[in-house]
Amino acid sequence: QVQLVESGGGLVQPGESLRLSCAASGSIFSVDDMAWYRQTPGKERELTATITRGGGTRYGDSVKGRFAISRDNAKNTVYLQMNSLNPEDTAVYYCNAEIFAPSGAFYDYWGQGTQVTVSS
User: Fold this and answer.
1) Which residue, 20, 39, 62, 77, has most beta carbons within 10 Å?
2) Contact at 8 Å (CB) between 2 and 110?
3) How many CB atoms lie within 10 A of CB 106?
């Protein structure tokens, strides 16, 4: 069994920063791509940022230049540094990881989500 545990969400004012973390634990052989998605009520979940095991990154257009994704492979952890936050960034942020189990099976896991609210 694998768990993704997110942390770092909260309430901030426009222009401020937050850093999200997501740690994968359990029966893991290796972790492939990791990503952050976000979702607001009534809308589909959208890709925010993704990072390969080798460190290649890709960002959604609305966060380019403001957000930075990184990871620590030794800790099976992915981070999302969010700068210059604005009210449109308010959402539930979900961590996603592609994980190889010791058996060789490949799974796609999601975290439980963490709320980020940007408001004055």
Assistant:
1) 20
2) no
3) 11
Phi, psi of 50, deg, nearest 5: -140, 150
Exposure string (b/e) for 62-71, b if CB count within 10 Å is 16 or more? ebeeebbbeb
Q: Note the pLDDT tens digit of each residue in 6-64.
A: 999 999 999 999 999 999 999 999 999 999 999 999 999 999 999 999 999 999 999 99
Q: Is the dihedral of CA 40, 41, 46, 52 positive or negative?
A: positive
Q: How far apart are CA 67 and CA 63, in angstroms?
A: 6
* 61 torsion bin: left (phi>0), alpha (psi -120 to 50), beta (else): alpha
3-state secondary structure of 108: strand
